[in-house]
Design goal:
Elements (H helix, E strand, L loop, with lengths): L5 E5 L5 E6 L5 E5 L4 E5 L5 E6 L4 E6 L5 E5 L4 E4 L6 E5 L7 E5 L6 E5 L1 E2 L2 E2 L3 E6 L5 E5 L2 E2 L4 E2 L1 E6 L6 E8 L2 E6 L5 E6 L4 E9 L2 E2 L11 E3 L6 E7 L5 E6 L3 E5 L5 E6 L5 E7 L5 E6 L4 E6 L13
Antiparallel strand pairs: 1-31, 2-3, 3-4, 4-5, 6-7, 7-10, 8-9, 10-11, 12-13, 14-15, 15-18, 16-17, 18-19, 20-21, 21-22, 22-23, 22-24, 25-26, 26-27, 27-28, 29-30, 30-31
């Protein structure tokens, strides 16, 4: 594996995910275990932006400056086997998954979607917003002691007026991202170790894969099994998949080839977001140890729409 220099920004976070780099140099993270959005300043100072019913899992800034979040309904029970914070089962207080809008100025939370096409959202996980303000998001699904209840990939308008299923089922849909030209949407599947690729044909529409070719949408399933979590896209189109056990970031080309794999100092490297003046700083959430780090990245990341970066 490759190693790049990094520095610790802060610690003591409750299973952080969904980092969003802000124009003021701060990073807002989803503290899943602590059920809040938290702003982390460059000096490591932390400030709770809003406490939530349920738990934020992924986040993105919309064209109105609000934060759009995947709320997983506080569906995890928590433990620390081996001294590493991690989900260890289901939470009996689970309140149902939903997509929400958070006004960062007032803290007002507005629910947008709780069910799609007549089916309830289970544990929404990650979200990306296209240049037209459309929300592309995943649902990780839930699990029982002996089974998975699958989620998938979905699309919704930011005003809560329309949402639809894009791809279902996906075993454990996790990270989601768009190619620089927004002609492709990528989805990381945790428990199969796959990265899926779908051709976008319109707002909330994809070219449906051939049902008789189940592997058609698989962009990559690399040698050496990795449990992909969330992802970010580089300016050149590479897809950077955060990885669990082993903790790493795997960089995959748009052709599905491994570019490199960067070792992370935590078995639960769950997500990354790019920032800095040249977009060559990767802010990585290390959830097992509750840290946010900044990694010197060799290539520029893609600026998210509406980020102000």
């Amino acid at each position: 594996m490759t190693h790049y220099p990094y520095k610790d920004i802060t610690e003591g976070l409750g299973f952080p995910e969904g980092p969003v780099v802000m124009p003021d140099g701060s990073v807002i993270v989803c503290e899943i275990k602590n059920c809040c959005l938290t702003k982390v300043w460059p000096d490591g100072t932390k400030e709770v932006v809003v406490k939530l019913d349920g738990a934020p899992n992924g986040a993105a800034v919309g064209p109105d400056g609000a934060m759009y979040i995947c709320n997983n309904g506080d569906g995890f029970a928590w433990g620390d086997p081996g001294g590493v914070t991690q989900p260890v089962g289901g939470n009996p207080e689970y309140s149902g998954g939903r997509i929400e809008r958070v006004d960062l100025e007032t803290g007002v939370v507005t629910e947008l979607y709780r069910e799609i096409d007549g089916h309830p959202l289970l544990m929404p996980n990650d979200i990306v917003i296209d240049r037209d303000g459309g929300l592309w998001f995943t649902d990780h699904g839930t699990r029982t002691e002996r089974s998975f209840v699958h989620g998938g990939l979905y699309y919704g308008k930011q005003d809560g007026s329309f949402a639809t299923t894009i791809a279902y089922p996906i075993t454990t849909a996790n990270g989601v991202g768009l190619s620089p030209d927004e002609k492709t949407v990528y989805v990381a599947d945790t428990e199969t170790g796959r990265l899926y690729s779908y051709d976008i044909t319109g707002a909330g529409e994809i070219r449906k894969p051939n049902p008789f070719e189940p592997g058609e949408a698989v962009l990559a399933q690399l040698e050496g099994f990795k449990r992909y979590d969330s992802l970010a896209v580089e300016e050149n189109g590479n897809i950077c998949c955060a990885g669990l056990t082993p903790g790493c970031i795997t960089v995959i080309s748009p052709e599905g080839k491994e570019v490199e794999t960067i070792e992370m100092p935590d078995a639960f490297a769950t997500n990354l977001a790019f920032g800095g003046p040249d977009m060559k700083t990767a802010y990585v959430t290390l959830s097992g140890s509750g840290r946010l780090i900044a990694v010197d990245w060799p290539r520029a990341g893609l600026k998210p729409n509406f980020s102000g970066l």
